[in-house]
Amino acid sequence: MAVVARPVSAQEKTQFDREPIYNLPADPPANAPVKHFSIFPLNVDQRVHGVQLGGWNVAGELYGLQLSYACFALAGELHGVQLSLTAAMTRRVKGLQIAFLTTARERGAGVQIGVVNVAKSYQGLQIGVVNLIEDGGFPLGLINYWPKGRLSIEGVLLHNQFVYAQARSGSSWYHYSYAYGRRLNSDRTLLALGPGLRLDLWRVSLNLDVRALRIAGSGDGEGDQPPEANRWGGEGLVDFAVHLTEYLHLFGTASFKIANNDDQTAGDELGFRVTNLSDSWAMGMSVGGGLRLRLRPPGGT
Known about the structure:
The protein is mainly beta.
């Protein structure tokens, strides 16, 4: 089918004059005309059921593909795929968004992939460096934050003398945790981050976390490692907390660590019952406890 180029009509442009073109368009009227192909450097359409392709795209309602090869891809309601080099922005979306910045201002479901992903209410997966979400969602990235969700800080002491602080941000049942610690008898440091699940049962709660792990430092204490024995690995973490008050929790924790052990000197820094899984990897378990301070009221999401 041949596509005949034509400029944006006055009727179509009037629909979007109420807001600047870089803002999200309003919902089009139900009887607005439907296009199947809109392929120009600048596209401003009320309803597209098909393909909208250009350098800058604006659609009130789009079912199909919206692809911007230069600037913004903007849609009021999107069901399908939205791709842009810079920003893919919607009010409501059900489908896939890929861009440097993706947004779902009101609600969304599907997958967001970008350097920065922002959503208000979302059911689906966010993959990026920074993920911001008010309610729901499964973000995976370096920085994952729920501005209106749960937020807590914790102090933890393990039996093998690792003491660390960690923070958890999340929804009512899903969260991301970040930990930084140090071993008391040396300069060995621990970094960990990863997703987790939470279960609340009246005055107690259970957290299950899976985190990437880094242990580094020269290891100048007795029984510690030489400078080259820096370790990468993973950690499974289980903690059971008793709620002393709404904001203060006392918990016990068990940590299961797997890390590289090329020099065969992991020792007790992975915990007790250290087991060599191979010539290069070892596994250990450590136990401990700590205090959790909830910074955001539990009445939030």
